[in-house]
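Researcher: Re-running this chain for the archive, since the previous output was lost when a drive failed. Same request as before.
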Amino acid sequence: MTITTIQKVIKIGSSRGVTLPAKQLRVLGVRDGDEIEVTIRKRTVAADGDEVLKVANSLLERYKEDFSHLAKR
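Model: Regenerated structure tokens:
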């Protein structure tokens, strides 16, 4: 079983680290001293769907006449 989670990097002394959610560790049966495999990849933030729709609708309204002329070509 694999659990994917997004965690923020925190400062721990002069190092950096992440916490592992206890609930997810219990689900996996991970205990102190167990070895786990960790893959690190910087998260890319995708635009929120509602935000994209809002901007698209705004552009459609703003250029409504231009789009109408283009549609008639």
